[in-house]
Amino acid sequence: HSQRSRPSTAVVSSHRADSTNICKHLGPLRCFQDFFKKHFLPGGLLQERDKRAKWHGIPTLLQKLFESSHPNSDLSQAHSFLKVLSSQLSMEAMSFVTEDRKTAQESTFPNTYTFDLFGGVDLLVEILMRPTLTMQKKKPKMNDDLVKDCLSVLYNCCICTEGVTKSLAARDDFVLFLFTLMTNKKTFLQTATLIEDILGVKKEMIHLEGIPNLSGLVQSFDQQQLANFCRILSVTISEPDVGNDDKHTLLAKNAQQKRNASPSRAEVNQVTLLNIPGFIERLCKLATRKVSEATGANFLQELEDWYTWLDNALVLDALMQMATEEAEQSSTESSDESSLSTSPLRHRLPQSMKIVHEIMYKVEVLYVLCVLLMGRQRNQVHKMLAEFRLIPGLNNLFDKLIWRKYTASNHVVHGQNENCDCSPEISFKIQFLRLLQSFSDHHENKYLLLNSQELNELSAISMKANIPEVEALVNTDRSLVCDGKKGLLTRLLTVMKREPPDSSFRFWQARAVESFLRGATSYADQMFLLKRGLLEHILFCIIDSGCTSRDVLQSYFDLLGELMKFNIDAFKRFNKYVNTPEKFQTFLTQINSSLVDSNMLVRCIVLSLDRFESQTEDVKVVEVLSECCLLSYMARVENRLSFLFRLINIINVQTLTQENVSCLNTSLVILMLARRKAKLPFYLNALREKEYAEKYPGCLLNNFHNLLRFWQRHYLNKDKDSTCLENSSCIPFSYWKETVSVLLGSDRTSLCAIASYIDEPFMDLDKDLLED
């Protein structure tokens, strides 16, 4: 969601001095209506102050609005005063949107500030909520145009005056009341815009179940309203942002989980949504519905023009509504009479805006589906998305909407900022890739990304290799897979290989493909991708493309690790591509430049080497073992030790995050394999010798001991899913636990205990390090 720069209260123009003086007379009576009830300020004094402070008659208009909005009035006169006020305030709001969103120091909004200062915001809230306060059985109905104008003025105040949004957000009764206004299609856009702004600053997430008749409300929405409602929902089902999740330390996360054992409000809201009949089915229809194609060379330029100033999909809705009304008007008038039919707006909106409009809808819908896929009800959501054919529907949209060929040049990252998602097209593609990643990750439904022919190809690969088919493949419902000549995964591979080096999508594409391979290693899945040239593409990107982005390189290292793990054919292909010492050295340089990024690949090579060394009866394996430069490099014990030293040295308990904890697990893999071959004492002694050589005795081993104690508390937690470690390494989790226990043994005579290798003076095993 866009973050608007709001004007600071410190830099509103000098009229505030007079405003502050008048406030001293008001005392605690901030609301202007309360003030007028007391008849405290004579009209002459008010007019005199108005001129000096340049209030532009706003206090007087507010007085008239108050007096004409008493409970028994028909509010028609009040509406006329509100329209005058609205025109004054809307000019400031428009300047805020169109003046390149200038900072507070450059752009001030005195009219809006004055309106709020004299209680205008509170008065409009009271007028809007008045029907809910009546004791009558039949609630009085307010004029739709009056409601729309009240909402528009409140929104203008929110974007132009600091603190208004927060004060509205603090009123739970008003926030829940706003949702009831969404039942009226005529006021829906204004209501949704205001709710989105308010929820964006609300300190506590709202309870969706507290919204009156939420199920009926959602079911009453048409598809357009539902798409915009998703924009609001995204704030209510996402966990509060506490900074980059990967950078948040595991110590802090674990402590927070202990404090908050019950489901979070976001998780409760997710369940509430899933219980609404037909909700997921309608989102799937929205995500996969087709739009008419826009043609013409000017499309990209028009898209660029529009997204630089359009704030969100709600503004687009207003423009689309205006365009539709203009079209209807022009159809009833002769062409020479209708100036609208030839205006630039009328000429340009329909063809370019419909696609942008649909794209922005889909961004919101895909985001909600993605969050639900990553929640506690993942399996329930998966079942529904499969049943409602989300994946085949997206596959049918891929070439015509998601990845249109003529938008390739628009993929370059703006300003080299890899997190850029400023255009609707870029946001849409990234959200699509994130959805694929969440859908495929460790779930048997991943095979829905293929079509029937591709599933048959997987079966044939297994048969040729004389290995059983994966159970998930056998159980895949063929009626729910992709249609057409290519499945969604194959289409993704095609565009991935065409992506320019500086594209913002390389990271997300690699993540989406990697998620298909994650979990228990499948030879058939790997061969399916190897046959399509994926390994050569990855190696080109790492070695030859000049890529310097750490995020992109990390995603390629992780993908390469999953693609090559235990696969002798992949190592043979690697050796064929990396066919010179210079190429191999470049590859090693990339790996060594950041082990946090490349350690999953290092783990893959170590695990694969260990397995191949036990298959020496296979002629093909023996041949690759002797020829492959990568396997030969890792076979040298000094190289494995070098990786082990650095993996332990770059992390400690206080800095462990979801991103770098893999370094700890990779170091454990190296030691578990050494233990299997009774070489654990050799490795531990090598660590000790390294410490003394670096003149830091006890440093490495004390740190590693503390890391392993943290590992026990983190992974042996009853809520922790340890199957990922087991599946990715093909080492039983019981052996992981056993190895850690042996390493942490307190018997200093044990050759497999870390404590045995730390001399007494340097023993620094902090017993309280992990205590709360």
TrEMBL record:
- Regions of biased composition (Low complexity) lie at 329-343
Q: Which GO terms describe its biological process?
A: ubiquitin-dependent protein catabolic process
Q: Name one GO cellular component term.
A: Cul4A-RING E3 ubiquitin ligase complex
Cited InterPro entries: TRPC4AP
State any single GO MF term.
Answer: phosphatase binding
Q: Which Pfam families match?
A: DUF3689 (PF12463)
Domain of life of the organism encoding this protein: Eukaryota
Q: Where is this region: Disordered?
A: 326-345
Q: Which protein, by its recorded name, is this?
A: Transient receptor potential cation channel, subfamily C, member 4 associated protein a
Organism the protein comes from: Salarias fasciatus (Jewelled blenny)
Gene assigned in the entry: trpc4apa
